[in-house]
Amino acid sequence: MQLSEYPLITYKETPVDAELTSHQLMLRAGLIKKLASGLFSWMPIGLKVLRKIEHIVREEMDRSGAYEVSMPAIQPADLWQETGRWEAYGNLLLKMEDRQGRLFCFGPTHEEVITDIVRNELKTYRQMPVNFYQIQTKFRDEIRPRFGVMRAREFLMKDAYSFHLDQPSLDLEYENMGATYNTIFTRLGLDFRKVRADSGEIGGSVSHEYHVLADSGEDEIGYCDEEDYAANVEMIEGNTAPNGGKLSFTRGIEVGHIFQLGDKYSKSMNCTVLNDKGDSIYPLMGCYGIGISRIMASSIEQNHDESGIIWPEPLAPFQIIIVALNKNTEDTTLTKSRKIYHQLKESGYEVLLDDRNERAGVKFADADLLGIPKRLIVSERGLDNQTIELNFRDEKNKIDVPFEQLVDYLEKLDV
Ligand code: ATP
Ligand code: MG
Questions:
Q1: Rounded Cα distance, 122 and 124, in Å
Q2: How many CB atoms neighbour CB 68 within 10 A?
Q3: Does the CB atom of residue 393 touch ligand 1 within 6 A?
Q4: Element (H, E) at 181
Q5: pTM of the model
């Protein structure tokens, strides 16, 4: 991408109605635009980051053995009436009516739809276990949409639903999803913790949340490393861990949630399959969510400084930004920058070229704000010495690399 062609609009001032750092930086860097309360447009650079998160999640979900599907965002009311959630879900549910007067909602989650598919399509034990997932836009009419995409009304979620003949099979997939989530959040470069979100009672529902650790997080987590125990404080009774260990506390942002649903939906929606003895049974279900768009804000909460975002490599919209220190459009610094830009693109790098007719200060400030990990500066001094200056967004030191060694040098950094 060349900034002389892309209409990048960044802001120096902190937006007035944004309290959280990640929200401020996403607006200032032009990654998102607010349309209305809890509704945001993704601009090209922001969308690139979102796609990277999506890609990692999709890759690991496919690897886990789950099958990707895509279900309608709009869902008929009768399905929700079957489970009793048309009323129980309350005002979070955005309801609407079509021209025939039939009621629908914009899906905040998809248990009803997937259970409807399974009850119509899957008949026997040979078709189980199975896990279906999708990456899709959800709508929840949150009472207090805030913090930008962190708690939006429309947001992107990965949701998965598994179906099983018995509890051991559900336990196995629950473990598999837990392991998959560990891989996903590690690959995304997040500092996270898996925490219990159930009461821990025998026979009760089993559920774990994944929290990105951040002081700004809305949730409080109690943990005890000696007992390898961590739980959402909403679930902790008393002041100690289960075996009496001392609790420490930290704050977190919920980015994922895994849940054993049991037969709640299969029963209420009369979804049955035949087991190997020919008996009709209600399959047990698990559900597994990840807040794709919330992850972007969470990552920024963990990776920024006073000048802007510091993207970890896997999320960075571009790996390299080339800053041309040109004064006019005919400058040799610009010609050289363009040459290097095309050379690096051909070598497979995602490169952003700042070839605008702007002052160096403006370009450096935008590069800091956008948070691209590697920066190459093409200056007249460098042209004289046949070198290019390389520095990193998260370090102070600078390296002068000879032009002809640049591609090799960058390659060595990546291995
Ligand atoms: P929260 O407690 O934050 O309201 P939740 O427990 O209601 O979330 P889940 O139903 O578990 O959310 O949804 C799966 C994931 O979707 C959550 O772990 C979270 O990362 C993400 N998510 C939920 N609500 C929102 C929202 N309003 N905006 C952005 N992401 C969200
Ligand atoms: Mg949750």
A1: 6
A2: 13
A3: no
A4: helix 167-187
A5: 0.96
Cα(159)–Cα(138) distance, integer angstroms = 10
Per-residue pLDDT of the chain (415 residues; tens, 9 = 90+): 999 999 999 999 999 889 999 999 999 999 999 999 999 999 999 999 999 999 999 999 999 999 999 999 999 999 999 999 999 999 999 999 999 999 999 999 999 999 999 999 999 999 999 999 999 999 999 999 999 999 999 999 999 999 999 999 999 999 999 999 999 999 999 999 999 998 666 666 899 999 999 999 999 999 999 999 999 998 888 889 989 999 999 999 999 999 999 999 999 999 999 999 999 999 999 999 999 999 999 999 999 999 999 999 999 999 999 999 977 777 889 999 999 999 999 999 999 999 999 999 999 999 999 999 999 999 999 999 999 999 999 988 899 999 999 999 999 987 6
Which of 209, 294, 298, 300 to mutate to test ligand 1, by most ligand atoms within 8 A of the CB atom?
Answer: 294
Q: Considering every ligand atom, which ligand is closest to the CA of 254?
A: 1
Cis amide leading into 129 (omega within 30) = yes
Expressed in angstroms and rounded, the spacing between residue 59 Cα and the centre of ligand 2 is 22
Of all ligands present, the nearest one to the C-alpha of 291 is: 1
211 Cβ below 6 A of ligand 1: no
Check: CB of residue 135 under 8 Å from CB of residue 57: yes
Q: What is the CA radius of gyration of the chain?
A: 25
Q: Residue 195, SS3?
A: strand
231 in Cβ contact with 196 (< 8 Å): yes
Q: How many helices (H) and strands (E) does the chain have?
A: 12, 23
Strands 248-262 and 284-291 turn out to be antiparallel
Q: What is the Cα–Cα distance from 332 to 321, expressed in whole angstroms?
A: 18
How close is the Cα of 65 to the center of ligand 1, in Å?
A: 24
